Amino acid sequence: MTRRDCPPIFRLEGVSYSYLGRYPALQDVNLTICQGEKVVILGANGCGKSTLLKILDGLYPPSAGRIEAFGEDLSRVGDDPAQSQRLHRRVGFVFQDADIQLFSPTVWDDVAFGPLQMGWEQDEVRRRVQEALRLMDVEDLADRAPYELSGGEKKRAAIATALAIDPEVLLLDEPTANLDPRTKAVLVELIARLGEMGKSVVTTTQELEIVPSIAGRVIVFGDKERRPIAEGDADTILDDTDLLVRANLIHQHLHLHGRRAHSHQHSHAGDHDHH
Amino acid sequence: MTELAATQHPAHKSRPAPGAFVARTVTGITGALERNVFSVENARLPGVLQQTDPRVKLVSILILLAATSLARHLLVVIAVYLASLLLARLSRLHLPTFARGVWLGIPLLGAVVAIPSLFLLPGHTLIATPEFGGMRLAVTDSGVSSAAMLLARVGTSVSLGALLILTTRWADLLKALQVLHVPAVFIVVLGITYRYLFLLLHTTNNMFLSRTSRTVGQTSGFEQRRWIGALTGTLVGKSLKMSDDVYQAMLSRGFAGEIRTFASFRARDQDRLFLGLAAVFAAGILLVDRSMM
Ligand SMILES: Nc1ncnc2c1ncn2[C@@H]1O[C@H](COP(=O)(O)OP(=O)(O)OP(=O)(O)O)[C@@H](O)[C@H]1O
Ligand SMILES: [Mg+2]
Q1: Helix locations, chain B, DSSP H
Q2: What global pTM score does this model have?
Q3: Is residue B196 part of a domain?
Q4: What is the pLDDT of residues B43-85, one digit of tens each?
């Protein structure tokens, strides 16, 4: 890692995770994320993006290795409600599946859930809810039941629930998946704005077109390695066709070329099979 | 109440295939639950119960439930039932729907339990089967009245419970339980169950709809049963994962073992009045019950 001058928020050393001790999801991840950084985790389906975010959020303890958040070791956070609450006061998580995130009877109740758990005064809670709803432009949906919303509305409501706590760090798990182009553009702009507000934002995605707007640093996860295989700024990574093909983020025969005329690599030598 | 997802699905308009029956029933039931039990529309109406403090409401309903189970006379139980209808009316619930929902669905269970008591209690014989191997089954008067009593009790209790659930937002109900010192763990579990049951219903519904839309023509009964078997397996797996996920989502928002909700309950005079009326009604009706022979 080139930058050593940053105050770290998350520090992972040799972190591995496997589900039920059998299905490996992450293997030996070393990673530091600094305050104020906008990081994009880029990787194909199943490379461990969601798992990584859940580890950052203290929801899973690493099977091996060590994770620190804000200088605190997270290995026992599952048994320590006070530490868990301390962490989640500073870190907001938007799950990949908005239906999981929205578990209250109405959007308003859902956005209020976080602030209420923090034990804030009622007026403060009301103010925060209002502010979060406004930021995500979902004030009109406050009284609706989450299941009545469209995909894009759900996503914005879900982000509002995380924002209501006014966290320093936001973890966004594939926030623009399954959205139409305009909704996607609106959301990308909102995410960029959150970054400008000084929040650290970690976004996972496999959609290359959103990366330039929201990434200061891009970390590419290997399709099979289950750990970072490259990192750099958005331009460097997006120009590296070989890397993107290797990470299964573009397909040799199936990708658009925005910037330049392309020549196919018709050799399949570097081709990977999936299983 | 019965305009459900299934009937909105165009496939059912053009093709009332017998194969679609199971799918229609399942989407019907899950759709109805989604729209009714999990909706907050009733809880938002400006009715009497909706505006009553949830704790007061909970305690009052419990008092009426106690009266229902202590009463010995059918007429008294019917009086409590009529009171529940009055409350439903005052809370602007749609009475026919309310009454039908209670009496059609759940008392089936009650009936199953009640039928044996028709025959088993000693008393004056009303109707009897012909002798059969030296024995005969006879419907006795006390059998009839105790079966009627059982049905009335079940129906009334269910009505009272439905009143509570329909007019109270789930979050407020949980909070009310907390105030009444129901253990926090129990409340947390209830809270998760609520959301997760909803997601599960939703998933079931979607799985049926997606299958219906992928199925061209009719499917055999065998195929249907096999598919339902597979579906059940999938749902069990999904439900385990979902309850886990919802719990994580709560943790990530700062949940630390004790649910905190918004409503700060402040009992007002009208709440005290309501509680008083419920208590007086219950006491009065039990007095009448005990003085009747
Ligand atoms: N609950 C689970 N039980 C068992 N294995 C799991 C579970 N969740 C994920 N996995 C496995 O762990 C690996 C990483 O999954 P993860 O969800 O982190 O990937 P992802 O990069 O987020 O994928 P996607 O882009 O599809 O969301 C996958 O191989 C997956 O099969
Ligand atoms: Mg994922």
Answers
A1: 5-8, 10-14, 20-36, 41-44, 54-70, 74-90, 95-104, 107-120, 141-167, 170-179, 184-214, 221-251, 269-291
A2: 0.69
A3: yes
A4: 778 889 988 988 899 999 999 999 998 998 999 999 999 999 9
* Residues A237, A234: Cα–Cα separation, whole Å: 5
Minimum CA–CA partner of A111 in chain B: B253
A83 Cα to chain B: minimum distance (Å): 9
Residue B15 placed within a domain: no
d(CA A35, CA A73): 17
Q: How far apart are CA B154 and CA B16, in angstroms?
A: 37
CA distance A260 to chain B (A): 41
Whether B260 and A116 have beta carbons less than 8 Å apart is answered as: yes
Q: How crowded is residue B285: how many other Cβ atoms within 10 Å of its Cβ?
A: 22
Q: Does residue B14 sit within a domain?
A: no
Pairing mode of beta strands A64-69, A8-19: antiparallel
Helices B184-214 & B170-179 angle (0-180, nearest 10): 160
Q: What is the dihedral of CA B210, B213, B219, B221, to 10 degrees?
A: 40
Domains of chain A, each with CATH number or no CATH: 8-267 (3.40.50.300)
What is the rounded CA–CA span in Å between residue B41 and residue B168?
10
For residue B267, give its domain range. Answer: 27-291
Q: Would you say residue B194 lies in a domain?
A: yes
The CB density around residue B230, as the number of other CB atoms within 10 Å, is 11
Contact B262 A109 (CB under 8 A): yes
